[in-house]
Amino acid sequence: MIDWGFIFNQSLTQAIDFNAIAFVLAAMGINVHFGYAGLLNFGQIGFVAMGAYGFGLTFTLLGSNSVLLAVAVGIGFSVIFALLLGIPTLRLRADYLAIVTIAAAEIVRLVARSTPLRDITGGAEGLNQFIGPFRDLNPFNAGSVYGFGPWSYRGSQLFVIIIGWILVALVVLLIRQLMNSPWGRVVKAIREDEDAARALGKNAYWYKLQALILGGVLGGLAGMILAAGNAAIQPDFFSAPQTFLFWLVLILGGVGKVWSPVVGAVLYWVIITFIRNLGRQLVSAGYVPTTVIDTSQIDQIQFWIVGLALALLMVFRPQGIFGSKEEMALDAR
Amino acid sequence: MLDDATTTDQPLSRLPWEPGVSKPDPILVVDGMRRAFGGLVAVDVDHLEVQRGVITALIGPNGAGKTTFFNLLTGFDSPDRGHVVFDGDTIDKANPHNLAQRGMVRTFQLTKALTKLPVIENMKLGAKNQAGERFFKALFTPLWGKQESEIEQRADELLTRFKMDHMRDEYAGTLSGGQRKLLEMARSLMAEPRLVMLDEPMAGVNPALTQSLLEHVKNLREAGITVMFVEHDMDVVRDISDWVVVMAEGRIIAEGPPESIGQNKAVIDAYLGVHHDAALDLEEEEARLAEAQRSEEEE
To answer: Which of B73, B95, B116 to mutate to test the interface with A (most CBs of A within 10 A)?
Structure first.
């Protein structure tokens, strides 16, 4: 028998769990980069990794107990990464940044997991002994389960989730304020035509660098949420394909709209959890014979289906959920 | 009888019609500017002065280097060598945004309307020294809200003047080619320029809009703004310009008031070729005939 209640429960739980929050923040970063400033960043996971390692290393390497300091270091790491990527490439055409970001993100992962750095970054095992100071701040009982309706989380998770959604709310307000300000106007103008903005006295390079830093810091925050939620930092999580899941979330919601990463990420986690759990139950309940597919293969199938859904979205609603068809039509002119 | 054109002409009317002539009150002075792309010398200008407060046309055959020269002057390209003085300040190697902030604003041959921004946002972008364009000030609306509404008011006035107020909230991408030219010109005025550089302002504009565009260019002069523009249409050049600079093969080959240009031998040669009006002599004619016959026989 298929336990529909369990499947829906799981889907709703995942919808607002810390993974979804991290996806929201990372996709919001890409939205700042691509949706508003027109910067092609295919290495957002690199920023996520920088944020996570900055956060974790503050405890393990510096031996600090200050969560605030760890957050500041995480942000600092993302800013430095943005400067490293942006300073050489932002004077060039947009495609150069795209190439550099995807390579740089892989460099971050490979350096972090490298054996010579084992004593610092933990090598391939990553970091997992850093969460103490953060847990100490938790007002909830880490071991007990808190629940509301279909949602139930352990106290340790709940703390991250509450902080995460507050953070998301603040970031939404921040982005909305910025993009409705003259600063946002300049950034959008640069997306449309950099030379026009320069001819009107705007320093395009400087604005692009600012946008790259802002979006990168949002990626870094996503990394810290993941580190805090998992209580561990795994270098191989930060692999290149992750970036494209963030892109998927953004495109699903609609590029260049403030709310689209939020809705896109929640929807993504609902869909993916639903498909996975339904698939597993179909197999284990015998509706699908194990000669066709077994439970361990379901995890691959879920991405096929997501890919198919994305392709269909591109065909039937290319602007995403929130995007405006009118704006899309202007591109074709 | 003195009409507007002759009064503004006057400071230039006594000047000799020769390349590089010095003007009584130049706003822009170019010296020894050279730009080569590999072996091709695109621009090689010894000396040029642009008079303040008048309309200067820059003409020349295709490939004369007019647009390259424009790009060099506005900082979109950097010369191999050369000096530019804009209103008393040396501006060698200045960035485009820097020049725009100093009051030299350009438009483009292919219009650069910001398609996914509404017309009014396009206009507001042009305004200089906006507090809200700084990241941290942008976060607090009270720090820029007042300036923003002043800018919006000025933008609306300009849109009304350019008869574009009915499209205020449309996306710029929905405008026609001519309307985009108008928008670009109006937007450049938002930056309160002292010198406006128009790269082919009439290209691709339908005849009905041409007149209105010309009027706007003339109005710039009335407002005390210096205008320099690149143009191919000689009727337009004769109609609105006070002074014409002719380029060919990267050099300035002639300068003078518009009526002088049609008679200038160097200009005619540049446009039509050096021997276009000389009759062939008998020997040459026979040689050509013989060649024509030979090639016929070969077939």
So the answer is: B116
